[in-house]
């Protein structure tokens, strides 16, 4: 930035254009953002170290709290990692229900994202429609788990709660409503001339660049790179259902938007297939003791923002020895933003749209 007459401004954490509890120090050359320094720490609670000082069952309630927008994949991954340590094979019924939980969480996360990006561009009406559809999913979770946002549904050994007798019928009804509203939101956003003008050719990445920057999930797939753990390294029963992995071609903010809407419909298809396999009268859980033997457990899942990994080391006893979590959002808020600013002219007005298109979860940095 030598020779430039730059101005420094602080963006967030209270600014409505910031995607959550995070801030940026921005260097402006006129209205162009030439550099951004991320300022995390507003939610830092040290989850990894906290989990090492709490029992295995207490850690279920910690495992998902560093991403409020997509907690279910984190909860499922923790349960899978503990099961990996003890070499447990959970009931097939539990695997299907975990898939339903995961895909419901993915849909809710993507709907919440469409609310954020719509608001960043000023298209508030479809953003409110998205929140309406997400609300029905939260009600669905509240009905089967007793909790709207954090669910405690998947625990080491399987599924914690017995499902309602009308679980299948009610779930299908919710899916029908959500799909209809999602298509309304998609129509109002993706075909809107203002949305197109604000997102096309913004924040472009090639597949090679995305991989170099450590990107996974929808942002990577928007570049045309078809990588999804549910297909490339199947877990649960994802290898027993049929679905497509949506990709883009240009890798800009518009492609990222298209991919997420397509993923909503693929998730709905996965849930409908899984519902056919759920048997309400069969076991949901096996017993895993309060004391875990020595060993290591690793779980990888395809979260709404990309590949999430949890690695747990046990030395035997009531608590884990070491817990390590792989952040989905760290590259999105650091290397990706820096790289795009270095090669592309991003104005202060476009900066919130760029952030929303990446869909980071800032508390994920403060784990």
Strand content range: 5-15%
Text of the CATH class: Mainly Alpha
Number of domains: 1
Q: Kindly, what is the distance between the CA atoms of the first and last residues, rounded to a whole number of angstroms? A: 32 Å
Structural features, described:
With 367 residues, this protein is an alpha+beta fold. The strands form three sheets. It has a four-stranded antiparallel β-sheet. The longest helix has 30 residues, at 92-121. The mean pLDDT is 94. It contains 13 helices and nine strands. It has a single domain (44-366), classed as Cytochrome-c3 Hydrogenase, chain B (Orthogonal Bundle). The protein starts with 6 loop residues before the first strand and ends in a 9-residue tail after the last helix. Helix 3 (92-121) packs antiparallel against helix 10.
Offer a quick outline of the entry.
The protein has one domain: Cytochrome-c3 Hydrogenase, chain B, CATH 1.10.645.10. It contains 13 helices and nine strands.
Q: What descriptive keywords fit this protein?
A:
alpha+beta, 13 helices, 9 strands, Cytochrome-c3 Hydrogenase, chain B, 3-stranded antiparallel sheet, 367 residues, single chain
């Amino acid at each position: 930035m030598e020779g430039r007459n730059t101005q420094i401004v602080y963006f967030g954490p209270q600014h409505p254009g910031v995607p959550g509890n995070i801030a940026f120090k921005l260097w402006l050359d006129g209205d162009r953002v030439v550099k951004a320094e991320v300022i995390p720490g507003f939610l830092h609670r040290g989850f990894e170290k906290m989990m090492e000082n709490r029992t295995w069952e207490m850690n279920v309630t910690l495992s998902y709290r560093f991403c409020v927008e997509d907690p279910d994949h984190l909860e499922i991954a923790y349960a899978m990692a503990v099961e990996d340590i003890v070499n447990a094979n959970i009931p097939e019924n539990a695997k299907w229900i975990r898939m339903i939980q995961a895909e419901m969480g993915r849909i809710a996360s993507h709907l919440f994202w469409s609310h954020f990006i719509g608001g960043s561009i000023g298209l508030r009406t479809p953003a409110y429609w998205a929140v309406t559809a997400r609300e029905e999913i939260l009600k669905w979770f509240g009905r089967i788990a007793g909790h709207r946002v954090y669910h405690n549904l998947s625990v080491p050994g399987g599924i914690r709660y017995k499902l309602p007798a009308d679980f299948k019928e009610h779930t299908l009804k919710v899916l029908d409503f959500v799909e209809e509203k999602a298509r309304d939101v998609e129509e109002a956003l993706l075909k809107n001339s203002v949305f197109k003008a604000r997102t096309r050719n913004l924040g472009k990445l090639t597949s090679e660049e995305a991989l170099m920057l450590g990107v996974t999930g929808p942002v990577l797939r928007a570049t045309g790179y078809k990588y999804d753990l549910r297909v490339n390294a199947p877990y649960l029963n994802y290898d027993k259902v049929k679905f497509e992995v949506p990709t883009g071609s240009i890798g800009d903010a518009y492609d990222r938007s298209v991919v997420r809407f397509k993923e909503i419909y693929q998730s709905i298809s996965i849930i409908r297939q899984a519902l056919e396999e759920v048997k309400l009268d069969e076991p949901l859980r096996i017993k895993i003791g309060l004391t875990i033997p020595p060993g290591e457990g690793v779980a990888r899942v395809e979260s709404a923002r990309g590949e999430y990994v949890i690695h747990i080391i046990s030395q035997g006893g009531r608590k884990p020895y070491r817990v390590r979590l792989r952040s989905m959002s760290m590259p999105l808020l650091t290397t990706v933003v820096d790289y795009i600013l270095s090669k592309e002219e991003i104005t202060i007005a476009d900066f919130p749209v760029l952030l929303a298109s990446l869909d980071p979860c800032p508390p994920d940095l403060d784990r």
